[in-house]
Input
Amino acid sequence: MPVFISFIFGLLFWTLPGKPLAEKNLIQIVDTSLRSGDASQLSTRFAKTIELVIDTERIEFQVIQATHAELILRSFFRKYPPRSFQFVYRGASDRLLYSTGTYETNGQLFSVYVLMQQTDHHQYAISALHFRKE
Output
């Protein structure tokens, strides 16, 4: 009987996911988009409006439409093409996911901050994106 109970508990913990699939997909999209400088792919996960800060371009919008943010990011990625991107920290709290990373381009480093909020439909959308030159 104890072997059977151990088997049931082991099976239960083995089948429980560490993170919901939607969260993993969003984090993967952010990672690959920043590594490749793909504003179109990244913008597919924007909320309708986001906060966008790019200090080297003197861009600081508390609220901007996702379509406008995509255009600004395309210009940023053309001017500062990615050499690498790496997450430094990822965390979560109630209905929030947040990440910081390092974006490298042509000998320059940017700290990147991404805030993702859970929507009413239990999906996560990017609500803030900051690029600050180090």
Notes: The chain is about 35% helix and 45% strand. Helices lie at 2-15, 21-36, 39-43, 66-79. The first helix runs from residue 2 to 15. The chain has one domain: 20-133.
